[in-house]
Amino acid sequence: MAAGLQVSGMTPLTTIDFPDHLACVLYTQGCPLRCGYCHNPELIPFQTDTEPLSWSDIDDFLKRRQGLLEAVVFSGGEPTLQPGLREAMLNVKQRGYKVGLHTAGVQPSRLKAVLSQLDWIGLDVKAPSHLYARVTGRHNQAFKNRQSLQLLLASGIAFECRTTVSWQLLQPEDVLLLARQLAAMGVTRYALQISHGNNCLDPRLQRPVSLATGQLTELRQALESLFTVFEWRG
């Protein structure tokens, strides 16, 4: 029963985490990245003193919600680093749910191992390659993220790319450069998520910088022109 999956929290109902579906979200523990704007810093450590949710309790919840919920999304943290992820996804499928995944693409081989179980994926693309370490606090992640994106493009599975932005870390021209790179690779669905500084890992980012309305409007129009589906969140 999904041994090795450490789930530290759950959102029992959401309409925004799996497009056009009522879903619940399971938050797994542990992430190798150190994004300053991270609003779930309690999920970063791989080892905590907090008792994880048992899979039997989660499974009981899913049994009770059959016919009401349509999908289960594995988020985090970074779910693909959980050894019990594939088994948990199989359990969810057996209950009749669609399966979604939120991932930063930190380990392409781990993503590849669960692709066959997925119906939808949200891939976090943190920054243009030359700024990736500034945002994530880790080196070599830009390359791994692009490998993960190539897997998704070849898979035929529905997915979106999305970038969370703190204007202390990225400028509009950085976002536009990244978006153009993604569009050139074949990405058709993209979202920009503006950090509001709530519960940020880096205290310096808890008071977000605002940009001029005209600057934001120009960026939004440019992004809308690049993708079949574009969302500006926040």
From TrEMBL:
Keywords: 4Fe-4S, Iron, Iron-sulfur, Metal-binding, S-adenosyl-L-methionine. The keyword Amino-acid biosynthesis does not apply. It comes from the Bacteria. InterPro entries: Aldolase_TIM, NrdG2, Organic_radical-activating, rSAM, rSAM_sf. Residues 17-231 form the Radical SAM core domain. Its cofactor is [4Fe-4S] cluster. The keyword Metal-binding applies. NCBIfam families: NrdG2 (TIGR02495). This is Anaerobic ribonucleoside-triphosphate reductase activating protein. It comes from Amphritea atlantica.
